[in-house]
């Protein structure tokens, strides 16, 4: 890792693998859910591809969790500062007003401080609620023939599949927002470039100080 | 003599009918006896199977085993058979006149025994076990009141008997010197498919491949399902089938593979078929040495075929179907026939309407799968796709299985809870085959005195009330119209692999079979919607819906069928929430991004304009 990198190589690989698998899962999931509207691979192939990429996603998520935990990068996802709500409000005001006026970002992105407060909350929900919900419901749907009694006891496919579909729809909404917010850097491509080449932290980057 | 002539003579000696007849069958010659035990050649009285076959086989015990003797009162037989308008309850079965009427209604399709003994009918072994039984003669004897001669009549094709007035006479010269019926003439054998087909539906052997079957041919089982059992290819038949040249498949793949009815519907104690389950075998033994002996089986062959054979008895479905995703899940939810009987290439009854029968006592019929008059050989047979209904099997497991649905309307006397007898209904409607004068104003629209098919419909309250009054006049205490919907399971007419369902989207898609509308009836007498009978183990997989034109359809849904089907089932509220969430986010992005762009451009322009002014001021 370069001293001035914002995103490590591992983070970037994890991110792009995640992006690819989620993209394929979205596409194949849409075909499985509504084959009359989305016709790409055929139903049978869509199911097989969906299962395969789900396995990759689970593996990638597990590896990612291990990496973030052992390197301490997990901490940046946790809102810890006492002035969290003040900073969050500041960030919200920037998105709703400051951005249109050309004001400076209230928080400067740095190594080990990649996320603003609003991002922390969002990713907390996504990574701890929505993604596990999708993983768990997907595994149970896949296992309906292996554990029929268990599946029936929790409502069967008629409960699991709509839950999985709801999670997928909300995930899609998040993705649209995520892709848009990438463009809110110094230039529209700043954040995207950072996720490709690691980005460059400012010389004064540290744990405290500076605003983004 | 030359070698060639000798060879020819040898060949001829083998092929002559006499030589063929001289081959000894397994069954010995039979001394035919009457019910007193006297040889029939001496008494001239009807054959008794209890005394004849009973010499070696325990016919009394056999008659207690299975539905053939019990038919009409057994648990699998509905009290009322709407196909032929036959009704028999336990009380009526004790009345010889009612039993005779029932036998006439079912056209003699009864093997005898049990309650039939009230009218002199014994269990007729010969109708199933002769190589060439005269079923027509037998049934005529049963339906015309000469029931005691039914068994003897079965022998007509053997040449051992000939008609003699109301009875039959024995041709002594055809018997052996000991007065026995020669085994070579009887041709006693295990039941052939054609024997079973006498009652159970249209069966054709390979030598009759170019057959024609009309839906109006009286094969009740084929009428209710449309299934024909034959090893021949459909394209070789004389049936006018849609897409016939492409139907290079057999009518039934099991028949093509030389399996007969008796292969699957076998005696449970047949020693050649008794398989010892692993968990029945004692742990210390590799094999079970004791097994039923042949002589025990021959003495008491168990005729209880009631436990319907399952595909799983022979087929290990879990070892094949590698191409099928979630194979176990499919096997848990679907019976084999759901995919392996995907279509019936025959016409089947859709409606049997007894509300206003013809002067000859015929119902109004609607068929599915036939375009035009089903009695015309030129009628195009389109076939139909059966509806998948949830059905509970003997183990209590509910799975989807293919069925035909037949709706029927008939009059019932609420005072007795019995269908109005057909003669009474005809007396109410007609006088000497002409519509009754009381009913003419309501029914006879063209005033010709006869009711055409279009006039034999209860399509106004006035007609219904007028007929109800006439029924009361002929002695029906409390007439009411009843409507039933009866499912008929499809277990035969199995398609070979290439013609079975292999396309996932036939279920998992917008045109899912589990959501396809199934026509029930084009017209509802008195607007009465039929209700599903409850004695078959099957239930509806959706709701009955009346269309604008008055027709009735079944609109199945996967969830009502007991499955949540990927690609076909969904929750509308989930889709709505997702749509709104996406719409909201996209709107926000467009608004926010658009505003950023506009304001950024404005700032750029302002900066550009301000620059020359600064340079000037410097």
**Which outline of chain A best applies?**
elongated
- The helix content of chain B, as a percent range, equals 25-40%
How confident overall, as mean pLDDT of chain B?
88
Strands of chain A, total number: 0
> What is the chain-wise order of helices and strands of chain A?
HHHHHHH
Helix content of chain A: 55-70%
Largest sheet of chain A: none
- Number of helical segments with 4 or more residues of chain A: 7
Backbone shape of chain B: globular
Low-confidence stretches of chain B: 16-22
Plain-language structure description:
The complex is a heterodimer of chains A (212) and B (618). Chain A is mainly α. In chain A, 63% of the residues lie in helices and 0% in strands. The longest helix of chain A is centred in the first third of the chain and has 29 residues, at 43-71. The radius of gyration of chain A is 20 Å and the shape is elongated. With 618 residues, chain B is an alpha+beta fold. Helices cover 29% and strands 14% of the residues of chain B. Chain B is built from 22 helices and 20 strands. In chain B, a hairpin with a 5-residue loop joins strand 19 (542-546) and strand 20. Chain B is globular, with a radius of gyration of 33 Å. In chain B, 36% of the residues are buried. Residues 16-22 of chain B have low confidence and may be disordered.
Summarize the structure.
The complex is a heterodimer of chains A (212) and B (618). Chain A has 212 residues and is mainly α. Chain A has helices spanning 9-33, 43-71, 84-98, 117-142, 148-153, 157-181, 190-197.
Overview features:
heterodimer; A: 212 residues; mainly alpha; 7 helices; elongated; disordered C terminus; B: 618 residues; alpha+beta; 7-stranded mixed beta sheet; 3-stranded antiparallel beta sheet
């Amino acid at each position: 890792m370069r001293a001035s990198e914002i995103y490590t190589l591992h983070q970037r690989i994890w991110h792009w693998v995640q992006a690819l698998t989620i993209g394929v899962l979205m596409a194949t999931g849409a075909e499985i859910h509504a084959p009359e509207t989305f016709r790409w691979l055929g139903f049978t192939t869509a199911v097989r591809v969906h299962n395969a990429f789900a396995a990759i996603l689970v593996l990638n998520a597990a590896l990612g969790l291990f990496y973030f935990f052992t390197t301490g990068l997990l901490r940046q996802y946790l809102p810890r500062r006492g002035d969290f709500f003040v900073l969050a409000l500041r960030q919200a005001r920037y998105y709703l007003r400051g951005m249109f006026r050309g004001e400076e970002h209230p928080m400067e992105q740095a190594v080990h401080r990649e996320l603003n407060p609003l991002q922390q909350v969002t990713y907390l929900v996504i990574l701890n609620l929505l993604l596990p919900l999708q993983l768990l419901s997907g595994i149970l749907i896949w296992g309906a023939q292996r554990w029929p009694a268990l599946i029936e006891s929790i409502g069967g496919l008629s409960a699991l599949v709509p839950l999985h579909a709801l999670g997928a729809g909300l995930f899609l909404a998040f993705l649209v927002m995520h892709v848009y917010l990438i463009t809110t850097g110094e230039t529209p491509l700043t954040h995207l470039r950072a996720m490709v080449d690691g980005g460059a932290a400012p010389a004064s980057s540290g744990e405290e100080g500076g605003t983004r | 003599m030359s070698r060639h002539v000798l060879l020819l003579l040898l060949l001829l000696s083998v092929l002559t009918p006499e030589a063929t007849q001289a081959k000894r069958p397994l069954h010995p010659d039979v001394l035919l006896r009457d019910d007193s035990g006297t040889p029939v050649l001496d008494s001239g009285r009807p054959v008794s199977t209890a005394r004849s076959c009973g010499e070696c086989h325990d016919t009394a015990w056999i008659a207690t085993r299975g539905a053939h003797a019990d038919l009409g009162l057994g648990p699998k037989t509905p009290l009322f058979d709407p196909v032929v308008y036959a009704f028999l309850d336990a009380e009526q079965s004790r009345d010889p006149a009612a039993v005779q009427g029932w036998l006439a209604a079912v056209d003699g399709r009864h093997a005898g025994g049990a309650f039939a003994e009230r009218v002199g009918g014994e269990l007729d072994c010969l109708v199933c076990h002769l190589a060439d039984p005269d079923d027509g003669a037998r049934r005529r004897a049963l339906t015309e009141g000469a029931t005691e001669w039914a068994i003897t009549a079965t022998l007509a094709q053997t040449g051992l008997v000939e008609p003699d007035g109301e009875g039959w006479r024995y041709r002594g010269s055809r018997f052996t010197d000991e007065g026995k019926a020669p085994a070579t003439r009887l041709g006693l054998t295990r039941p052939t498919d054609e024997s079973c087909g006498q009652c159970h539906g249209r069966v054709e052997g390979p030598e009759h491949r170019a057959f024609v079957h009309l839906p109006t041919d009286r094969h009740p089982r084929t009428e209710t399902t449309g299934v024909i059992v034959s090893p021949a290819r459909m394209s070789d038949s004389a049936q006018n089938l849609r897409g016939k040249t492409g139907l290079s498949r057999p009518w039934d793949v099991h028949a093509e593979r030389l399996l007969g009815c008796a292969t699957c519907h076998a005696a449970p104690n047949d020693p050649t078929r008794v398989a010892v389950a692993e968990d029945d075998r004692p742990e210390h033994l590799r094999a079970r040495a004791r097994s039923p002996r042949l002589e025990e089986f021959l003495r008491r062959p168990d005729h209880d075929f009631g436990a319907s054979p399952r595909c799983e008895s022979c087929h290990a479905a879990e070892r094949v179907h590698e191409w099928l995703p979630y194979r176990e899940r499919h096997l848990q939810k679907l019976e084999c026939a759901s995919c392996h009987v995907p279509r019936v290439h025959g016409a089947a009854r859709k409606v049997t309407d007894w509300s206003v029968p013809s002067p000859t006592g015929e119902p109004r019929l609607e068929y599915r799968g036939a375009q035009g008059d089903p009695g015309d050989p030129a009628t195009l047979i389109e076939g139909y796709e059966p509806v998948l209904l949830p059905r509970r099997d003997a183990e209590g497991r509910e799975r989807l299985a293919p069925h035909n649905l037949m709706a029927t309307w008939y009059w019932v006397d609420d005072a007795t809870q019995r269908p109005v007898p057909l003669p009474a209904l005809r007396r109410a409607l007609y006088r000497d085959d002409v519509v009754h004068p009381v009913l003419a104003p309501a029914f006879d629209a063209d005033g010709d005195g006869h009711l055409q098919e279009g006039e034999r419909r209860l399509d106004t309250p006035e007609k219904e009330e007028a007929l109800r009054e006439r029924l009361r006049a002929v002695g029906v205490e409390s007439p009411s119209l009843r409507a039933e919907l009866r499912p008929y399971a499809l277990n035969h007419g199995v398609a070979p692999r290439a013609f079975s369902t292999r396309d996932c989207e036939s279920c998992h898609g917008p045109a899912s079979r589990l959501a396809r509308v199934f026509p029930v009836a084009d017209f509802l007498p008195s607007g009465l919607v039929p209700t599903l009978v409850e004695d078959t183990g099957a239930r509806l997989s959706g709701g009955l819906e009346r269309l604008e034109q008055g027709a009735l359809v079944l609109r199945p849904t996967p969830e009502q069928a007991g499955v949540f089907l990927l690609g076909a089932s969904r929750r509308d509220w989930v889709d709505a929430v997702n749509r709104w969430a996406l719409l909201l986010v996209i709107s926000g992005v467009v608004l926010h991004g658009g505003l950023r762009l506009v304001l950024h451009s404005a700032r750029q322009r302002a900066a550009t304009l301000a620059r020359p002014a600064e340079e000037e001021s410097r």
